[in-house]
Amino acid sequence: MDFRSLQLFTHLATSLHFGDTAQAMYVSPSTLSRVIQRLEDELGCTLFKRDNRKVALTHSGHKLLSFSTQSLKDWQQLKVDLREDSNSLQGEISLFCSVTASQSHLPAILRQFRAQHPGVDIRLITGDPALAIDKVKQKECDLSIAIYTPDLPTDLHFSPLDNVPLVLIAPRDWRLTQLTQVDWTKHQVIMPEHGPTRRIAYHWFAEHGIRPNVYASVGGNEAIVSMVALECGVGFVPKVVLDHSSMASLVTQIPVDDIEPYGLGLCCLQDKQNEPLINAFLQLEMAP
C-alpha cells in the first residue's frame, strides 16, 4: 500500500465511478482497476461492490476510506511541516545587554523570538550598558540592547524598544521626598563614570544652573543605587534599574518631571541589519 494507491482509492470512494476517477487522477481505467484489485488482495477483503450499473463501497471500503482520509491529511501536514523546517532560520546569534535589561526587557524579546525561530541558538553576553554600542562596533556581538544617544555612530542601526525614565534617588533615612528639599551645595552626588546617565544628568544640572558636588564616579547604574543606599549621596538612575535592585527599599525616589528619558532599543551594524538572523530580531513587535 502506498499514498498514491490511497489517493486513487479515496477519489473513487467519493466519485463511485471508475471512468471519472481515472480521468481526474490521470490514469487509465485498467490501471485504476489493477490498483483497487491490489489493495483488495493486500487487505484480504472486497472494497467495492460492482455491477454494470453502479459502484458502491462495502463495509470494509468505508473503514479503509476513514483510514485513507486521515492518512492523506496527515501526509499533507507532514510535507508542510517539513517544508517549513527546511525554510526556517538556523544558526547562532550573539546578544549583549546589561544584567538589568536581561531581567526587564530580554525575557519578552526571547520568548517571542524563540517561538518564531526555534532553530536559532542565542548566545547572551551581559555587562555594563555603557559598553553596548562599542560591543557592536567591535563586532564582539551581533546585537545589543543599547541606549540611544544623539551622537550614535552613523554606521549603526537603532531599533527602538522602550522609553525608560530616570529617577533621582536619596538614602531613605535622609527623608528627602521633594526636589526642593535637596540642597545641591550640601548633598553630594554619585555619578556614573561614563554612559548616557552621565550625559543626561549633567545636561539636567546645566539647564537648572546647578553645579553638582560629586562625591564619587562609579561604573554602572547598579553601583549608584548601592552607593546611595549606603548614604554616600544622591544620584540619577534609570527607573528600571531601581525596580530590579535588591537595595531599592533602602532609597527614596524623588520626582523629577523634566529630565530626559532613555531611548532603549536594539542596536546593530547598518550593513548587517538585513542579514536573516539579525533582521528577524529587528522585526519583532514588542509593546513597551
Automatic annotation (TrEMBL):
<protein>
    <submittedName>
        <fullName>DNA-binding transcriptional regulator IlvY</fullName>
    </submittedName>
</protein>
<keyword id="KW-0238">DNA-binding</keyword>
<dbReference type="Pfam" id="PF03466">
    <property type="entry name" value="LysR_substrate"/>
</dbReference>
<dbReference type="GO" id="GO:0003700">
    <property type="term" value="F:DNA-binding transcription factor activity"/>
</dbReference>
<dbReference type="InterPro" id="IPR000847">
    <property type="entry name" value="LysR_HTH_N"/>
</dbReference>
<dbReference type="InterPro" id="IPR036388">
    <property type="entry name" value="WH-like_DNA-bd_sf"/>
</dbReference>
<dbReference type="InterPro" id="IPR005119">
    <property type="entry name" value="LysR_subst-bd"/>
</dbReference>
<comment type="similarity">
    <text>Belongs to the LysR transcriptional regulatory family.</text>
</comment>
<feature type="domain" description="HTH lysR-type">
    <location>
        <begin position="1"/>
        <end position="58"/>
    </location>
</feature>
<dbReference type="InterPro" id="IPR037404">
    <property type="entry name" value="IlvY_PBP2"/>
</dbReference>
<dbReference type="GO" id="GO:0000976">
    <property type="term" value="F:transcription cis-regulatory region binding"/>
</dbReference>
<keyword id="KW-0804">Transcription</keyword>
<dbReference type="InterPro" id="IPR036390">
    <property type="entry name" value="WH_DNA-bd_sf"/>
</dbReference>
<dbReference type="Pfam" id="PF00126">
    <property type="entry name" value="HTH_1"/>
</dbReference>
<keyword id="KW-0805">Transcription regulation</keyword>
